[in-house]
Design a protein that fits this description.
The protein has a 4-stranded antiparallel beta sheet with strand order 3-4-5-6, with helices on one face. The protein has a two-stranded antiparallel sheet with strand order 1-2. The protein starts with a helix and ends in a 9-residue tail after the last strand. The model has no long low-confidence stretch (mean pLDDT 81). The protein has one domain. The chain has 3 helices and 6 strands; from the N terminus they run H-E-E-H-H-E-E-E-E. It is elongated, with a radius of gyration of 19 Å. It is of the alpha+beta class and 150 residues long.
Length: 150
């Protein structure tokens, strides 16, 4: 009977840990980060690592805060917790989440410069469950993002 109780307790404990890893629990902070927090982290990262231009441009927009960024770029951000878009084939498979390797992707599309060409910046930022950077793909475009109809 004691062995059954110990085995059951271990199974429940391991199941609890695996469940939290799969759904994106941030162990270092002891909580789940919601979509808004993940998007905020992606914006902060993107603003700290702006695109590099061959010739510096005087019309680059200097965002002073996440709020200013969001005001100017209303439809800027999409979070992918399950289907990770272009990262799906390059990041570890989703089943490894059971070991705590949870990765999601935030797509940002925002106005980088006042004038064309290439005045919109698109970044797909892969992050872990605590909002820390994993990998990034970027491109410059000459058109704003077209919002997806829901």
């Amino acid at each position: 009977m004691t062995i059954i109780v110990i085995a059951s307790a271990l199974t429940l404990a391991i199941g609890f840990i695996v469940y939290r890893n799969v759904v994106g629990f941030c162990n270092s902070q002891g909580r789940y980060l919601d979509d808004a927090e993940m998007i905020r982290q992606a914006i902060l990262y993107s603003l700290q690592k702006p695109p590099h231009e061959r010739v510096p441009s005087p019309d680059v927009i200097q965002y002073r805060s996440v709020a200013e960024f969001m005001d100017r770029n209303r439809d800027c951000c999409i979070i992918h917790r399950h289907d990770r878009g272009e990262f799906e084939n390059v990041l570890a498979d989703r089943w490894v989440r059971i070991f705590g390797w949870y990765v999601l992707v935030v797509d940002l599309w925002y106005q980088y410069k006042e004038a064309a060409p290439d005045n919109f910046y698109e970044a797909s930022i892969a992050m872990n469950s605590c909002g820390r950077f994993v990998e990034r793909h970027v491109s410059l475009n000459s058109r704003p993002r077209v919002p997806i109809e829901k």
